Amino acid sequence: MAAVRKVLFVSPPYHCGVVEVAGRWIPLQFVYLAGAARHAGFDCRIYDAMSADATHAQIVAAIADFAPDVVATSCITSTYPDGLEVLRAAKDAGARTVMGGVHPSFMWREVLSESGAPVDYVVTGEGEATLVELLRALRDSGDLTKVAGLAYRHGGRAVNNPPRPRRATLDGMPMAWDLLDWPLYTYFVYPGSRLAAVSGSRGCAHACTFCSQQKFWEKTWRGRDVAGLVDELELLRRRYGVDVVLLTDEYPTPDAERWERFLDHVIERDLGLKLLLETRVEDVVRDQAILPKYVAAGVAHVYVGVEATDQATLDLIHKDNQVETGIKALRLLSEHGLISETSFVLGFPDDTPETIKRTLELSKTYDPDFAHYLAITPWPYADIWNDLAPYVVSDDYRKYNLIDPVIRPKAMTLDDVDNAIVDCYRSFYTAKAVSLATDRNAARRDYLFRSMKLIMGSSFVRKKMTSGKGMPPEIRALLKKLSVVGDGRS
Question: Can you give the pTM of this predicted structure?
Fold first, then answer.
């Protein structure tokens, strides 16, 4: 067996238009995986094809330049087809191929059965230890059956070894920050910023039926030592010039005492960072007395998953919160000058144009700073899949992105759903732009206007809102108002 020494991590070059409007995000999973592999003695490189806006031809060139023995990628459902293309290129170059992430962890049998078999090995679940053991087994001609959390082909069929227990601690893991191409990463809302991401915990103990993360982590939650986490923030600030940090935690705040200690440590260090995070509405309400600490710690933008404006839908998806709690959480964030963002999920089987319009009108009463209107997307391994499978009309995984509808409601077509989502965005942001003109908080107003310029000026939104019919006059007026007509950013 040929020597295994060099490992190249490549992100799938997938683009769907919404997430990338706000910034270029680091592939944090590769920082962990490359850190673990390098610590074990392997020569590693990260090629972030997504953030670099690389073509597949450029990926082929990057593979040829490094000549890796192993190429690894990580996929969610929508990025999976492009991940396959990355590994096909790697196979053509003679490398062994590894895929990990949420989608292949559950769909390993399908992954290993793909036409042309571009994937040699699937790392299922938490990947750092499994990847290192796999690399050592390949290097030393070891026994693959002993590598927990690994799926592969054996005797012409796909097999899956027993799962790997989760790490006992998330502290002290080696990180490959130096392998990132740092100038790529910026938060467009703050021109000239340098954007990083950190993970302070893994998992979520809630049971939302549409969510992949609670299923991936088996409804468990583990948090890192707070002092070590803030040390990492300080390292990013001092060594790499980071001034905006996304907390990637699925749920950073379930332990109220630990979360407040984190805020206290960040305030004490006075790092000058802006923090972006996601949490649950009930935690914002729980924390109303310490929201000034959020502000003092640099928390700038908080996403909360409201998801629905009626209690029946919240109960259907097991969101485990109340409509009134969502409204109160968004009000509290606004009162403390924190930017609020939330989403509303549309396109359920019983939805109609009337129910979606009602959701839109109710979403305006919540009055978040940013609202996203998402197409319900049942991942093929999610708890809600069996309920929604009869209404799924697309097997193109690239469309499983919460943007392109793949569920056809009983009384609507896919085009109806798509148009309704566009109408929601158009109506919400046109009204929001008008209201912002009277906002007396200059910093908040500027942040929101810059963000709206990015949203409304993006090629994705323009494409969705025109759909070959010409740009609606109210959107053209809004673009002019925001001075983005002719802006090259997309």
Answer: 0.89
